[in-house]
């Protein structure tokens, strides 16, 4: 609310020149297009100012008058607030009442997005609930302007009232307070304390949204920003993707009277026309409201759940019952509630000694907090690196000066600096927060740091261990930003873990758009420089020892991974030497788990294996057994598109192979004892981590493009190493009329091979043979596959699975694995082996193994 004395008039003028509707027609248009109603709210002014009020209303639009002889003074602010609520309840039906100080700049386009998010999650009392010290002198001193005798109400509970300059109240609660006839007797200037007390008394849940904080040391200017009206001001706030802008630039009109209305961004101008449904009520520059929406009204994607009192478990909204029953409900990530303060001189010196300026530190919102130190077994001050996504704080990473690290337990993992990269076509990924800050000093703003550093160095000839696969969940959580980047520069550390991290990031993000920074090594320097120690490990070390210009030069000289479609032999020198030194055994593949088969066939990432055999020969069973071996021995995970099996039955068969016991006490189990419930539980947990099912739930058949799209997502989200497509004839094979089946199969297999090579994923593709005439029980060959000879021509490996059906030829449990094609001679050769199929468990064993 604003007073009407002359000293406040310039505030209203500057608001109208920048963000507030400038006249009555603009107010009406905003209300019609967005459902927002904005008003300056005033109490009873002196009689001598009535004519000035009328003139200003005629020129700039109506005020919202608060009757009742409530004067605009600090001493009456709480009473004036309740009187305003009575006016709102009498004349409007609103979902939200939003209070904004008249010395604030508000981004209405960003506010429109936030309102939709609040509606989607059912947020009620919304504001910046940062922790404050209620024992501070300004609240206790009777002579102070903001003295309030009721501050003790929130002793130890201070975060339950929002900061006064900008907060949001639920309209229905305001109606209830007014209808209750409650008389507020608190008095005093601090209507924010009074409001928080009432919300607590009415059991209204609070939602801590730091986008509403205007102070620099909190989370500035994402939606609202406080300016100094005494002179022209230019402020660049934190970057954010809320509303689609990278930064907020505010230039209010100052003493010069320059017209700044060109900077005004209204919701309708930013693509939010009709976003909030039918017109309702909204007042700003004083208080504001947002209209209620029908249950079916659309809103943007849900944000975080409000804190405080929880909503009923069945009142979350969204999703069908079938969808909810399909998978287990996972607990939402923890929301950080830090108690941050500005960096001390000692903490700031930590950054300046490492080449990071205070301006860069403050722009990234870095502060400090007292945290428990496991090293020292006491609370110590730690640096707090805030992790934001779309302006929302989702995690905080802490670092002590002696390099003890921690994060908010169970918080969502995202990249540090993510909002700096919203909409960026080029993104730089580094290994630590200090490297991100160093690159910003060197002139690079679109930089992010991984939250957990690098995984351990990969052992010689080994693939990444399975426990490291979970460390890349942040890529999936940040995919909306990463997917927009056409060029990703990997500037991870130059040591072995850093290079392992770069390789895994390139594999998951796609090598075709990745570039890499090479840090100086002693081998690359001349002898004199080498003796001086010019080897550098990371960006922060470069800026500390060599300066900003050298760091900028090294990043600008990043090399591609490599140039797509055009290569020099030197681009592969590292891979060739690594292969020669047997440091990379992927070319030779990994063991199948069967000693008799390994000399002929080993599994190589990036290859395509075609598997065929007559019906009921056990092709799918053998592949499932192979995958279980790889999961148990190598920690691999897989995506499986098996259209002929129900998910329940497929999981049961995999479970039997892993537990090595039958699922049922049925005839097929023989003398084997059925698996115990504890084994089922443990086995299901193991399966859930390693096998991911691709299901097409519509009536139509899935296309190969659909399968590969989902598999790409599985690489990013789960780091899968293998893909099964079983079988070919269960895919949708619509093709243009002029295209032959041979041409179609060739193009399809080319897509699959490119996927395998691009993402280092081994693909098993099951294809049935055509109907064999006069078949006498012999195994088919690869050219018998129905559809095209390209199944054998394009494959890296061709395998025939054949089960003996004639007791005269041997055991009926005997299975032949005939390797009929091997392109990579380092991984195998043409040959065959015998396996014994154990029907009770579904496992295969080397023939002759007891």
TrEMBL record:
One Pfam family matching this protein: Galactosyl_T
InterPro entries the record matches: DNA_helicase_DnaB-like_C (IPR007694), Glyco_trans_31 (IPR002659), P-loop_NTPase (IPR027417), TOPRIM_DnaG/twinkle (IPR034154), TOPRIM_dom (IPR006171), Twinkle-like (IPR027032)
Record-linked CDD domains: TOPRIM_primases (cd01029)
Keywords: Glycosyltransferase, Golgi apparatus, Membrane, Signal-anchor, Transferase, Transmembrane, Transmembrane helix
Ranges of residues in domain SF4 helicase: 583-850
Bilayer disposition of the protein: Single-pass type II membrane protein
A GO CC term attached to the entry: Golgi membrane
GO BP terms in the entry: DNA replication
Region named Disordered: 240-262, 283-341
Main subcellular localisation: Golgi
Domain Toprim, chain residue ranges per copy: 425-524
Gene3D superfamilies linked: 3.40.1360.10, 3.90.550.50, P-loop containing nucleotide triphosphate hydrolases (3.40.50.300)
Pathway assignment: Protein modification; protein glycosylation
Recorded GO MF terms: 5'-3' DNA helicase activity; ATP binding; hexosyltransferase activity; single-stranded DNA binding
Keyword Aminoacyl-tRNA synthetase appears in the UniProt entry: no
Cellular compartments annotated: Golgi apparatus membrane
Family statement drawn from the similarity comment of this UniProt entry: Belongs to the glycosyltransferase 31 family.
Protein name: SF4 helicase domain-containing protein
Organism: Elliptochloris bilobata
